[in-house]
Design goal:
Helix 2 crosses helix 13, helix 11 runs parallel beside helix 16 (378-404) and helix 13 runs antiparallel to helix 16. The protein is an alpha+beta fold and 415 residues long. It has two domains: 3-57 and 262-412, no CATH class; 63-257, no CATH class. The longest helix is centred in the N-terminal third of the chain and has 42 residues, at 18-59. It has helices at 3-12, 18-59, 78-86, 120-126, 129-132, 152-158, 198-201, 209-215, 235-241, 255-258, 260-298, 300-308, 313-344, 346-357, 364-367, 378-404, 408-412; strands at 65-69, 91-106, 109-118, 133-136, 147-151, 165-175, 180-193, 204-208, 224-229, 250-254. A hairpin with a 2-residue loop joins strand 2 and strand 3 (109-118). Strands 2-3-8-5-7-6 form a six-stranded mixed barrel, surrounded by four helices. The chain contains 17 helices and ten strands. The radius of gyration is 32 Å and the shape is elongated.
């Protein structure tokens, strides 16, 4: 071990006299760094978990990639579109759909809805409605039987249950000599789903695609085709490449565009939380400045003796850099171990705290998520560790530079 390392470690472990107070400040700085790093890792893991949970819920109803006609036109030859899209190596499944607006009426209640006509056997391959069903089955939607599946919030608003009959009013009306009469059709509720996203649970109604085509007079046409790909993060690239396999009169979009504002808001919130919590680490790191300044003042005689024995200014500077770096490293190790352990076991720790305090942190009727999600990403851990260590080293530079500038004759004058 070089003597700079040995002396720097010795100063960190000092226990007597004024050195004891300096050691106490060092321990405080170390714990501050540990708490800050632990908070950063846990909060970013929870934010990643929320992001993953919400993305899964959205894509359980929406699609990775969506193909529709330009200008909102119908896709008449949708079979050809499905066959063309299937030629792309990343496309795993495709499902046609009909999308239209309407109004649902039951008893005295009326609600506006987004009607989606689907083929149940194909829809299961691109969405997760089967896992969201609270009552009934997706296969209950059969051609010609005019069954309908409602989101749970929509069913509550209309006060309907499985088996009730509701009236669907289409905006496309019948022209009569007296007036334009809206098209009405009675549907039987065959199921209720809960996706966990209020947007879908409160306004989406599923019917069989053939029934939707009849009600909205679309013939054999559809509104578009929904695709599932093997890697959802490749959706933007796949949506561009699909134009090579399809006719130019189609419009292709992906989930990152259709929900861009939502995911951008989540990412901005995550970034802001990172910056706010990084201030905790910065404050703890710059406490090292005061620690080293006091250490330099206390050790002026030692520094002068070392200089007279031949130690260079660079060696003196390295001693105090090592002292500050050791404080930072010990704090980082404690913070990383604590943060990773808590992030990986947050599903156990949070319920235990809820039971101990008698508080429910996440009310399911408010957040739709009863458990605090967590997804630890080692890339975040490495980034946090690197930034924190850089702040620690930055805090050591000025005190170390001051130590290297001490004049031995001046320091020993009154000794």
């Amino acid at each position: 071990m070089r003597y700079e390392h040995w002396i720097g470690l010795r100063y960190t472990r000092a226990k007597k006299g004024r050195n004891h107070f300096i050691s106490f400040i060092s321990m405080t700085s170390m714990l501050g760094i540990a708490l800050g790093v632990m908070a950063l890792i846990v909060v970013l893991s929870v934010m990643n978990g929320f992001q993953k949970e919400l993305r899964g819920r959205i894509l359980g109803v929406a699609s990775h990639v969506q193909i529709s006609g330009r200008g909102g036109e119908e896709l008449v030859d949708w079979v050809k579109v499905v066959q063309g899209a299937a030629r792309h190596p990343r496309v795993q499944a495709a499902a046609p759909y009909v999308s239209a607006q309407g109004m649902l009426s039951f008893d005295q209640d009326v609600r506006g809805v987004m009607v989606r006509g689907i083929l149940p056997e194909a829809e299961e391959k691109v969405a997760n409605f089967k896992g969201y069903m609270k009552s009934g089955h997706l296969e209950s939607l059969k051609e010609g039987e005019f069954g309908i599946i409602l989101g749970i919030e929509l069913a509550r608003a209309l006060r309907v249950l499985t088996g009730d009959k509701v009236t669907l009013i289409a905006p496309q009306g019948l022209v009569t000599p007296a007036a334009i009469m809206p098209r009405l059709k009675q549907f039987r509720v065959v199921g209720i789903f809960e996706a966990g996203m209020f947007e879908y649970d409160s306004s989406l109604a599923l019917v069989h695609m053939a029934d939707a085509q009849k009600l909205y007079r679309m013939g054999e046409g559809v509104s578009g085709v929904r695709l599932k790909i093997d890697d959802l993060f490749q959706a933007p690239r796949v949506s561009k490449e699909l134009y090579r396999y399809l006719e130019p009169d189609v419009f292709i979009t992906d989930w990152t565009r259709s929900h861009a504002n939502f995911f951008r808001a989540v990412q901005i919130e995550k970034n802001m939380m990172f910056l706010i919590l990084l201030l905790i680490v910065a404050v703890a790191a710059f406490n090292i400045v005061s620690t080293l300044v006091m250490a330099v003042t206390d050790k002026q005689a030692d520094i002068a003796i070392l200089r007279t024995l031949g130690a260079s200014p660079g060696s003196i500077m390295r001693i105090f850099i090592i002292q500050g770096a050791l404080i930072g490293i010990f704090g980082l190790v404690l913070g990383v171990v604590g943060g990773v352990s808590l992030a990986l076991n947050i599903d156990v720790v949070v319920p235990a705290l809820e039971r101990a305090l008698g508080i429910n942190f996440l009310a399911k009727d408010v957040y739709y998520i009863s458990d605090l999600p967590s997804e630890l990403q080692w890339r975040d851990v490495a980034f946090i560790t690197g930034i924190s260590f850089a702040l620690t080293l930055l805090a050591t530079l000025y005190p170390s530079w001051r130590a290297s500038r001490i004049n031995p004759a001046e320091a020993l004058r009154y000794e």
